[in-house]
Amino acid sequence: MKEGVLSMSTVTRVFALSLLALGMFIYPQEVLSSAGQGLALWWRFVLPALLPFFILSELLMAAGFVHFLGVLLESFMRPVFRLPGKAAFVVAMGYTSGFPMGAVLTARLRQAGEITRVEGERLLAFTNNPSPGFMFGAVASGMLGKPTLGIILASSIYLANLLVGILFRFYRVTPSPRNSTHLPSFKRAWQEMKDAQLKDNRALGQMLSDAIKQSITTVLMVAGFMAFFSVILSLLNIWHITAFLAALVHIVIKGLSLPILNAFFNGLFEMTLGCQGTIQAVSELNQQVALLTLIMGWSGFSVFAQVAGFISTTDLRLFPFVVARALQGIFALGLSQLFLLFAEIPTSSLVIQRPSTSVLFWNTWQSSSFVFIGFMSLLFILVLIRQPRV
C-alpha cells in the first residue's frame, strides 16, 4: 500500500511539473512578463525590507544579543506566549522585516537547540507578516492611493498576529517543570552574552562577511520563490483555473461577485497579485480593506513555500503555520472593519499616483526601520518593567 501511495504521489508530481513545463513552453512571453513582475516586486519591496535586517540579525545573533535579550525577557515571554525570552528577538525582527524573516530566525533557533519543536511551531505561527513597507508603501499609497489607510491595514495585521500568538500559547501544552527559576537581571544577561561570544570566536571581519553572504543567499532564494509563483499564477489565470474555482464558489455563495472571488483565489496563491486584483475588482472601500487584510493575513502559497523551504532542515511542521495564517486572515478582516467604524477616511474618488522605483525602495526601507526602532524600544521598556525591585 505504501508503495502504491508513493507511486501515485510521484506520478502526480511528475504530471504537475510536466504540465508547468508545457505551459512555459507554449506561453513564453507571458512567463517572461510574469517572472519580471515578480522580480520587480522583489526589488521594490522585499530587498530593502529584508537585506539590511537579515545582515543586522546575523550580526546580533553572532554577538550574543539574543542570549542577552532572552534572559531579560524570559519572565514576559513565558506567561504571555509560553516561549523563551530569546523568542522576543524573532518577534521584533519578524514584525520589522516581513516574510520570511520569522521563519528564517525560528529555524536558526531550532537548529541551535535554543527552542523545542513545539516552541518553534508556536513562534512560527505569529512571527510572519507582510513588511511595513509593503503595507504602507505598496498597498496603501501605491495601490489604493490613500496613505492613511496604511495605519488601519498595519494595525489590523499586527493586532491579529498578536491574537494568534496568544491563542497559540495553548498549542500542545504539556505540564513540565521550568528549567530555570532565575529572576531577570542585567548582570546574568551580560554574562550570557559574553559566554555566547566566547563560543563564536570569529573575527569581526569574518563575522560581517559571513552575515552578508548568508543574507544575500537567503534574499536571492526569496526572489526565486516570488518569480516562480508569479509564473504559476499567470499560467493558472491563462488556463482560467482561478476563474473556474471562483465560478464554483459563486454557485454556492451568491452574495459575492465573480471579480471578488477571482481576486480572492489569486490572493490564495500570491499575496501581491491578489492585492492588485482586489483593487481592480472591488469599488467600495470597506470591501477593499476587508479583502486586502484577509489576503495579507493569509499571505499566500508563495509564502508557504518559502517558509517550508527554510524550515525543511528542522523538525518543525508546516500545518500549524497554515492554521495560524487562516486565523490571522479572519481576525485581521474583522479588526479592519472595526477600525474603519472609528476612522475618518476621505471618500473621494481614488487618485492613484504610482511612486518611482527609487521612492518605493526608500519608503520601504524607512518604514521597516521605523518599525524596527519602535519594536526594539518596546522590548527595552518591557525589560525595565520586568526588572525585580531590590
Question: Can you describe what's shown?
Answer:
It is a single chain. The protein is an all-alpha fold and 390 residues long. It has a domain at 44-171 and 182-224 and 315-386. The chain has helices spanning 2-26, 28-62, 65-81, 87-97, 101-111, 117-125, 132-143, 149-167, 186-199, 204-238, 241-252, 258-269, 271-281, 285-298, 301-310, 319-342, 357-386. Helix 3 (65-81) crosses helix 9 (186-199). The longest helix is centred in the N-terminal third of the chain and has 35 residues, at 28-62. Residues 1-5 and 347-353 have low confidence and may be disordered.
Topology record:
Blueprint: H1 2-26, H2 28-62, H3 65-81, H4 87-97, H5 101-111, H6 117-125, H7 132-143, H8 149-167, H9 186-199, H10 204-238, H11 241-252, H12 258-269, H13 271-281, H14 285-298, H15 301-310, H16 319-342, H17 357-386
Top keywords for this entry?
390 residues, disordered N terminus
Number of helices: 17
- Main sheet record: none
Oligomer: single chain
Secondary-structure element string? HHHHHHHHHHHHHHHHH
Q: What separation lies between the terminal Cα atoms?
A: 66 Å
Mean pLDDT: 82
| Helix content class | over 70%
Uncertain runs with pLDDT below 50, 5 residues or more?
1-5, 347-353
Strands, total number: 0
Q: What is the CA-atom radius of gyration, in angstroms?
A: 22 Å
Structural class: mainly alpha
